[in-house]
Design a protein that fits this description.
With about 170 residues, this protein is an alpha+beta fold. Helix content is about 30%, strand content about 30%.
């Protein structure tokens, strides 16, 4: 995966107050609520960073939110944890990803995920982490991420991970 090319006329930007968040609808109330009411506040507090994909009319076609965190050593699969210190370990978190209903079926979710992973990989060159972690809102979301080589964390069927090693292989084929 070299670079992410969005369709002509689409622009990816950091979330700003002026973006029309209140009308975003991806069909998932939890995801809509995050973007509409919490994403900007969390970004201003430096708890997460949200990027929005704007279409030709300036509407939000989709977005993703990234954050950092830690995962307990014991929560990682043994093949990933085998050579790691037994303590809380740094992770990148793909906190949210959504595509508006008006733009679903156009592969924008794939492009947004590719960009989110590229951003994680780039950040990982400066701030190391052992994996990208995410929580799925439902089975459909889980199937989507599984296509991208995300795997279940032991005992948490809706919490998925992508090891930093796998991420590096994706970015440097």
């Amino acid at each position: 995966m070299i670079g992410v090319m969005f369709p002509a006329g689409f622009v990816l930007e950091s979330l700003q107050r002026s973006h029309p968040r209140s009308v975003f609808d991806c069909g998932q109330s939890e995801v809509n609520d995050w973007l509409r009411t919490k994403a900007l506040q969390n970004q201003q507090k430096r708890l997460s960073a949200t990027k929005v994909l704007l279409d030709q009319e300036g509407s939000i076609a989709g977005f993703f939110t990234l954050a950092t965190g830690q995962v307990d050593f014991g929560n990682l699969p043994s093949e990933l944890a085998r050579k790691l210190p037994r303590r809380a370990l740094p992770v990148a978190i793909l906190a949210w990803l959504g595509v508006s209903k008006a733009h679903q079926g156009q592969k924008l979710e794939d492009l947004l995920l590719a960009q989110a992973l590229r951003d994680c990989h780039t950040a990982g060159q400066t701030f190391a982490f052992v994996a990208v972690i995410l929580d799925c809102v439902d089975e459909r979301a889980k199937a989507f991420y599984r296509r991208w080589d995300f795997a279940e964390l032991p005992g948490s069927p809706f919490r998925l991970f992508l090891s930093s090693k796998t991420l590096s292989a994706m970015m440097n084929p």
